[in-house]
Amino acid sequence: MSSGLPRTSLAWRVTAGCLLVAVVAVLVAALVTLRLVSQTGREVTREVLADQADVIAAQLSDTTAPVRLAGVRQVVAVLRGQGIAVVALGDDRLGAGDAQARAVLAKAGLTGPLAAPRSVTVAQGGETWLVEARPTPGGGFALLRSAETGPVAAGQLRRNLGFSLLAGAGVAIVVGAVVGGLLARPLRRTAAAAHVLRTGRRDVRVPVRGPSEVAEVAGAVNELADALTRSEGRQRAFLLSVSHELRTPLTAVRGFAESLADGVVTGDEARAAGRTIEREAQRLDRLVGDLMELARLEADDFRLDLLPVDLGALVAEAAPVWAERCRATGAELRVERPGAPVTVYADPRRLRQVLDGLAENALRITPPGAPLVLAARAPGVLEVRDGGPGLAPEDYAIVFERGALHERYRGHRPVGAGGVGLALVHALVTRMGGTIAASRAPESGAAFTIALPTQRVMEP
Q1: Residue spans per domain, the chain
Q2: Which residues does 289 contact at the CB level (< 8 Å), separation at least 6?
Q3: Please, what CATH class does the domain formed by 307-451 belong to?
Q4: Of 25, 53, 196, 408, which one's alpha carbon is 20 to 30 angstroms from that of 442?
Q5: Burial of 286 (0-12, 13-18, 19+ CB in 10 A)
Q6: Mean pLDDT of each 10-residue bin along the chain, 460 residues long
Q7: What contacts 325, CB < 8 A, 6 or more positions away?
């Protein structure tokens, strides 16, 4: 079910992801670089400002020559032209500076003659000011400069980083679009193949290439197509088999019913025809019942009554019924029971249905004089074995598939109605939380071994 959110293509998502990574990388690099460069620029600006202050202080310390004082004034004029404020602190040979410079010095506590050099950093008016003050014979002076206008200007640095961010975003968009297109192309092929599979075609295949994840998806779609082909083939074979099984008794019922209706058979022949009709109707009823049970097992409302069941008692209860049926066919019934109760949690009615289904299948192919074994043993194992012809080694892998053995052995040995009996048994055992496996029996035939839970479990 759709979540209601708009869907976006893989190419767009890859492009957006590359753009996001590029922007985050540039921003992180910009922040780190800006901080490092700002600190370095401030240190360089302060060192240059300190050197300039030391030069002026040295010249003002010896003012005997008027020419030297004139040179100092020229230096001061040059510094002011560079954005460096020169403010006199009691030395009337230098200018008093502007109001902003005086405010910065006042905040730094530099308003009078100095006794020693001072280096101060002051935040004023949203700017960071670097102050280098030096004492002179006349009182002292101070050089002030904004950290934003030093040799390494932070403003210019921010502009350069902004340009880098834009360039990185542009490259990310181009690279993301190209990479996204390359990645999306095989996925589009895979999606197209899946749509074709949905329409019913099973011959579609996707080239398995590209990145490993994409190739894995393509391989999975190909495997799905193969599995659907096999499954639908088995279903068609099963339906054909069931149709054949239904047609045979229906043909007999219809033929004998027409003979009775037309008066072709009378007397003892009519009674024999009635028995044949009854027998074929029971066969139809068993087949339809098995099919309905399989359908119900796949529904969510199928209920089981899981109760404690003694497997030994279950086998003892079923033994007289199967002893009578074995005498009718000439087979030999053997019952193996433990001395102590073997308790499992299962649905008693369904478990008896499983036992009877396996015994009926076994007895159908057990020749006269061969054994049919009903066995119960700890822990929680129920087993049905026979002395019949058994199964081929490759049959064990498909023994519980609907109609598989029926189709393989029809015409070669007696088979059940439609080949759904073992599939029904497997479904019932699984729904009760147990497992069932087929193997070769010591009696030379087939053995079906059921393992059931010996503790109460949640109903499936």
Answers
A1: 10-156, 212-297, 307-451
A2: none
A3: alpha beta
A4: 408
A5: middle
A6: 52 69 72 71 80 80 60 75 77 66 80 81 81 81 77 61 71 71 73 78 76 77 80 64 62 77 76 77 70 63 82 92 90 90 90 88 89 92 91 82 65 53 84 90 91 74
A7: 363
